Amino acid sequence: MIVSIVFAVAFLVLALIFLMGKGDKLIAGYNTASEEEKKEVNIKRLRILMAILSVITAGFVSVLPVIGDNSKGQMGAGFVFIVVAMIFIILANTWAKKK
Questions:
Q1: Contact predicate 79/33, CB 8 Å
Q2: How far is CA 11 from the centre of its chain?
């Protein structure tokens, strides 16, 4: 339970870092992109997406101890998290791109 709380707080701090306009180097793919590729990305929108995903992850990590050893609950929660992550990947590649 303590480990879950520590990770949840870490993800909430990460969300705050993104909302403050910092932490671009923590975004996978963006930090290794060339300057030309970075110009194609709306970084403000990408930061918002990453902050929201960090908050969702904090919530997910917080719920895991409540689920406990219930394998159906773990499978359901894992499936929901994967679907949410895929939605955010799609949004990062569409909504966060400059037109």
A1: no
A2: 8
Pick from 46, 58, 52, 57: which is nearest to 22 by CA?
A: 46
Do 30 and 46 contact (CB within 8 A), yes or no? yes
Question: Helix, strand or coil for residue 41?
Answer: strand
Q: What is the pLDDT of residues 37-64, one digit of tens each?
A: 999 999 999 999 999 999 999 999 999 8
> pLDDT tens-digit profile of 54-98?
999 999 999 988 888 888 988 999 999 999 999 999 999 999 998
- Distance, CA of 83 to CA of 16 (rounded, Å): 24
- List, as one string, the DSSP characters of 43-86: HHHHHHHHHHHHHHHHHHHHHHHHHTT-HHHHHHHHHHHHHHHH
